[in-house]
Amino acid sequence: MKMSLPYFFFLCLFLLSFSDQALAVVCASTCGQVQEIRYPFRLQSDPPECGSPNYELICKNNRTLIQVGSAEGHYYLIRGISYENRTIEVVDPALIHGNCTLPSIPRSFKDFYSSPVYLDRLSFASFMNCTMPIQQKNYWHVPCLSHNGTFVYIYYGDPGYFGSVPYLKPSCGFLAITPFNTDTFINSSADIFRHLQEGFLLYWDDGKWSNLAFLHYCFKESIRQFLNETRSNKDVASMVYLLLKNEKHFVSCVYIRCTQLKYFYFALALLVIVWLLQLILAFFISGRLIFTPLSILFFIAQKFWSERISIDSIEKFLQNQGKTISPKRYAYTDIIALTGHFRKKLGQGGFGSVFKGKSISGQEVAIKMLGSSKFNGEEFINEVSTLGRIYHINVVQLLGYCSEGSKRALVYEYMPNGSLDRYIFSENGSPCQVFSWEKLTEIALGVARGIDYLHRGCDMQILHFDIKPHNILLDKSFIPKISDFGLAKLYPRDRSLVSVSAARGTIGYIAPELVSRSFGVISYKSDVYSFGMLLLEMAGGRRNAEPRVENASRVYYPSWIYEKLKEYKGVELSNTYKINVVERKLCIVGLWCIQMKSSDRPPMSRVVEMLEGDVDCLPFPPPPFFSTSENNWASEPLRVTTLTSLGMSEISEEADYPLLSE
């Protein structure tokens, strides 16, 4: 007896598992051409235990009918049932003979949402009555239904979302809508009636599918349909249309099949996300295919245009001034010959590369090949216009130039001893005392005379704006020569002030008025300030602004010099030598030159006299703006920080320093 209970339990489970099939066999019915009506369907005349009330069919006049939706008295004729595929083949009774007539069920397709059977794909034929003719794709005129000045049209396609009829024209009224089970080509309204005669398929489920399963099913069906339709449509426009169409079908499928509204909202949100991703992808692809080439073309055009402007400005300058300048104009082939095909490179700078060459007469030359057209060829024009019309022993000589299209070159006399910074600074920043004080004075006087010549000795006043040790070159006899006129400006000699569009020069040598007009007007005194910084560096053998020094009081070098000069005892301005007469002279003259207000600085002619005179006759200069006499030492680092924070970059780059030497 104990063993019989488990057997009885498994027997009940076995019988229950076959209960549906047993009912289907016992309750099987027929009606007209439908030979087998079984679970889940039932006829009205079947016993209550047969089938499901939700799938009740009607047998009338030997025809099997099914009611879809809530409309009473309107039934579709069933032609067959496939239990394997869970489909019902139905047709509107009024359209079964293919006659020119309206559907007998003037329903909205929303009726299919409330029915246990549903459509798999929402393609409909909509009948509408219009007061005006319509000439538009997918609108087919039905002459047999049109009369008394009215026009009946059939529109076939997707109906839109949630019962809306987006294609309904203002002059038209809705008559009826019926499912349309075809994706084939339509040529006339007769084709539509022929397809309506064939009917369409309805689907049902066995109640075992969850809402998530329906989501998965709708997604799979949309993908399958898209792949099937794209086999015959390979062009991009058709594929985009089919993609959007099947995405819409996915949402419609979920809306019809899922019983809970939240799954529809989920599908709708998913579709919106997909559309956004597609939009981003479309922008990305269009950017790659359209905007990127356009950007490249714009960049090339802009570069070509700027080069064209640069070339035109240079050629215009050479045409107007070519006869007044003495340097020789070379062809680019001559430049190649002079440099031996650019065999020996001396250096690389911000404005181009420098090569060593030899002229036909055997003279050694340095040739600067200008790179990109910075400032629209301004550097080239500045060099040629200034050096091309002057000659001074303390100014580097321009021997020739070349301008052919974008190829530009400047030919200088060769300076075998390089630039001054090589002899006053060591590689580690410590003082490098190579010259005697007398030689340093000669070099300082030579530079001062060269600057004074630029300011007063020419028919035009020339302001260099970039005086520094790197731009002072030394010939074989160590005679200094001012070079690099790329930032120079020419002005009439009677002008006491000039205007520039931006700060020019190198940080540490830029006059204060170039940074802020509160320090005075821009004039030739700006070069005086740069020369004063040069003198202080020559005297002390160190750079005028070094933020990395250990003692914060020595960050601003001129202030430190000023304080040491005030101490009337022998102190060291460098780590090697005691202060002497020449060194003190250079420092005093330098401090006069770097006065913050430009009106307090002497002109270069007076600077030359001061360097030539006796140091004891020199008046002691006022304190620099950032000296300890008027300001706390803690404020001195602000000088360096302020200049740096202004965002000024070195316009004349240090890479240009080996310009005319090896």
Automatic annotation (TrEMBL):
Residues annotated as signal peptide: 1-24
Membrane-topology annotation of the record: Single-pass type I membrane protein
Membrane-spanning residues: 263-285
Pfam families: GUB_WAK_bind, PK_Tyr_Ser-Thr
SMART domains listed in its UniProt record: S_TKc (SM00220)
Gene3D superfamilies to which the protein is assigned, alphabetical: Phosphorylase Kinase, domain 1, Transferase(Phosphotransferase) domain 1
The protein's name in its UniProt record: Receptor kinase
A GO CC term attached to the entry: membrane
InterPro entries (alphabetical): Kinase-like_dom_sf, LRK10/LRL21-25-like, Prot_kinase_dom, Protein_kinase_ATP_BS, Ser-Thr/Tyr_kinase_cat_dom, Ser/Thr_kinase_AS, WAK_GUB
GO molecular function: ATP binding; polysaccharide binding; protein serine/threonine kinase activity
Chief localization: membrane
